[in-house]
Please model this.
Amino acid sequence: MTLISTALNIPFVDLAAQHQTIKQEIEQAISRVLHNTDFILGQDVTLFEQEFALFCEANHAVGVDSGTSALELALRAYDIGPGDEVITAANTFIATVLAITSVGATPVLVDIDPETYGVDPALIEAAITRQTKAIIPVHLYGHPADMDPILDIAMRHGLIVIEDASQAHGARYKGQRVGSLGHAAAFSFYPAKNLGAYGDGGMLVTNDPQIAEAVRMMRNYGQSQKYYHVVEGYNRRLDTLQAAVLRAKLPYMNRWNQARRQRAQLYDRMLAGSRAIHLTEAGYAEAVCHLYVVRVEHRDALQAFLGEKGIATGIHYPTPIHLQPVYQHLGYVSGDFPITEQYAKQILSLPMYPELSLSAIEVVAQTIKSFTPLPPTNPIATRSKSLG
Ligand SMILES: *Cc1c(COP(=O)(O)O)cnc(C)c1O
Model:
C-alpha cells in the first residue's frame, strides 16, 4: 500500500471547521452589536451572563475579559492577598497560579491524583497552614476534580473554594454542573476552550450575590454607579462582541460536549491494549473532554513520529509550575511532586474537537499502534566506536 506514505493533515484543533457550521448565527450576532453599537457592557453581555448562569445551574455570572481575570477578581472579592496562601495543583496551566501571585498571595502546590490528574484531596490537608485562605481545584482536561472531599476539607478549615473551570464548561460532578460546586468559579472563553470566543473572554460564576456584586464593580473601574467609585477597580469587562459570539455558540454546548465524549470513547476503544494509556473517568464524573491526553513511554519520539505523518499533538503541560523559571523563588525543587513530574514527561494530547472525524481518530490510533521506538543504543558498541 503506497497510501501509507501519503502525508495526512489532522490538526490538533480546527476552529475554522466549527465556524463553518455556525457562520450565519455568528454573522447575525456580530451585525446586531454593530447595529446597536453598545460595545461596552451591552445587552448581549447582560443576556449572556443570565444564559451562562443558567447553563452552570448557578445564580450569578459576571462577564470579564479572560479566565485569568475571573480567577484574580474572585480572589480579590474574597479579600485574599499578601500573607495569604492558596492551594492548587502542581499540574495546571500557568494562569491558575498567575492569578494567585497577581493578588500578592502565595501559591502552595500539591501533587495530582494519578487516575484523574486532578488535585489529590488526600494531599491538600497536609498543605494547610494558618495562612491558608483558599483552595483552587482545577477541572483539568475537562474532567471534574473530586469536589466532595475538597469541600469537606474547606468546610472544616474555613477555606474558600474557587473552581478553575476554564477547561470544563458543562462538565458534571455527581450530576451537578461544575461552576456551581464551590464558593465561586472561573471560566475562560479563550478560542480553543470548549466554549470559545473569537478573542479573549472569561466569566466569574457564583451563588453568592455579594461576590457577584464585588466582581461586577471591580471589573468596571470600581464604580457602584457611573463616576462614583467605591473600590479600587480595574478595566476587565467582557466585550459585547465576544458576548454576542458566545451567546450564538452556547445553545450548541451540550451537543459539542457530547461529540467530544463520543470521540474520547472511540479513542479509548481504538487504543485499548496499546502502549498509550488514557486517564480513567471517575465514577462521579461526566467529563467534557477538553483534551484527550494519553501517557506513553518514549513520548517525544512518538510525538515526532506522529508529526512526520501529519498528525498534530500537544503537551499539557511540559514543565510543571514548580519548575518554571518564574516561580523559582517559591523554593520548590525537582522531586517535590513525583506524579506531576513523571506525567510531564509522558503525557501527549491527541487531536480533539467536536468536528474531528471518526475516521481521523482511527488513523491516529492505528498510527500510534504502528509506532515502534528504536531500541536504546548499545553503550558498549558506542564506547568501542568512540575509542576507535
Ligand atoms: C485557559 C485557562 C486559564 C486562563 O484563561 P484565559 O482566558 O486564557 O486567561 C486558566 N486556567 C486554566 C486551567 C486554563 O486552561
